[in-house]
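Protein: DUF1330 domain-containing protein
Species: Methylomonas koyamae
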Amino acid sequence: MNAYLILDLSINNFESFREYIEKIPLFIKKHGGRYIVQGVEPEVMEGDWCPERVVILEFPSKENAKEFLGDTEAQPLFSIRHKSTTSKLILAEGCS
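Structure follows.
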């Protein structure tokens, strides 16, 4: 069953974040993932959720998504994201 990582982020330091943008696609692909939505400015349709940017990644399974997040080689990049953005991340399984 496919799984989705949904990232809501505001970029606080684009120069620092640039390295993450350039290098993280390799790790996404390594774990069978792909971009569904890549850093777009969403249009709010209901409610008070107002993310600045949204990224949605699709993985073949919840396990693949968790392996991506736990990849020791990618940790320095996640650290860059944590330091250069304000972000929220959720994992959701899709329908079979």
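Remarks: The beta strands are 3-11, 34-40, 53-59, 85-93.
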